[in-house]
Amino acid sequence: MSLADVKKNAQERMAKSIDTLKANLAKVRTGRAHAGILDSVTVEYYGSPTPLSQVANLTLIDARTIGVTPFEKKMAGAIEKAIRDSDLGLNPSAQGDTIRVPTPPLTEERRKEMVKLTKTEGEDAKIAVRNIRRDANEALKKMVKDKTASEDEERRASDEVQKLTDKFVAEIDKLLAEKEKDIMTV
Question: Where's the Ribosome recycling factor domain (predicted)?
């Protein structure tokens, strides 16, 4: 493994940490409705738990209402029950072929809890990025020890890994600030 490989590997792993953070932040509810809220809901479909998105079409009816249209009409009751039983605090109601899922407005206290949750997710992402930095630095030190790289090369590469880390931590902070603003907007 060369110095460039170590840096490339670290960058790819840090980018995956950012992608994971984005996916986790998408699950956190804001004041507006979005279909991603229902990603964690599973429905009993012919005896096996199936993600809601595979048995129904999810759409936004308006800023506070999600529309769920089952692919099979007989699934409507099971879908409605699955949404109600999930721990999301949503109360769906059937209207013809479509199930309307209104998202209640968040209270100030609940908004603050959501912000805390996003900060926890952000801190986890930062820890992951720092662990990747540590792994890369250990790999660089091992290369010096094995005499496949000089100490000067190791120091330069270590500085570049630190710059990568700083860049990704700044991106995490930016994502968190955007999400916090989104949550606190009434």
Answer: 21-184
